[in-house]
């Protein structure tokens, strides 16, 4: 009988060590990209400044890298909640360390999640209201840069005219589908919220694209 841990040349034991090492590298790389975005990305800096003016600061410690195994996402915004003692927890932006994103994608993800933070601060979103969810997803996809012409070309979605709206609808629907309680009618919620939310570009005067 042979055991997996006794094999010095491979097997699950060594694979686990290798995977752990890779996970550490991914985490370190994610944290480096987050810091770069916080310091260098104009959109990220701009939205954080606007959040501060609204009284909802997002200090550096609120941005966390972690693996998101089994989840088809690159990040997420966790709004503050009240604990058992009645005190609110702080909001958090989670960035997925295991998705292999580059710096441009990290910038877009952080800008996207910060729009959710802005909406939470501005109107106190009800995350159980699927129209609220659809609206903030539309706004985040529209203003973060993730639907820029260059990004759509990289995804293989090339269209001369109407590309921005189609991308925003598609990506907002994917996000709403991933929201518990909203998945069955994601397209309906996005369509209902689309016009007013697409043209609501706060905190920008107009869509920065």
Q: What does this protein look like?
A:
By secondary structure, the protein is mostly helical. α4 crosses α6 (163-177) and α4 crosses α7 (186-198). Helix content is 53%, strand content 6%. It has 7 helices and 3 strands, in the order ααβββααααα. A 3-stranded mixed beta sheet has the order 1-3-2. It folds into 2 domains: 15-114, Zincin-like (2-Layer Sandwich), CATH 3.30.2010; 126-209, no CATH class. The longest helix has 29 residues, at 12-40.
* Count of DSSP H/I helices: 7
Q: Which residues sit in consecutive blocks of at least 5 with pLDDT less than 50?
A: 1-17
Question: SSE order in H/E notation?
Answer: HHEEEHHHHH
Helix content: 40-55%
Which helices and strands, and how do they pair?
Elements: H1 12-40, H2 42-53, E1 63-66, E2 75-78, E3 92-96, H3 103-123, H4 130-143, H5 149-155, H6 163-177, H7 186-198
Parallel strand pairs: 1-3
Antiparallel strand pairs: 2-3
Helix pairs in contact: 1-3, 2-3, 3-4, 4-6, 4-7, 6-7
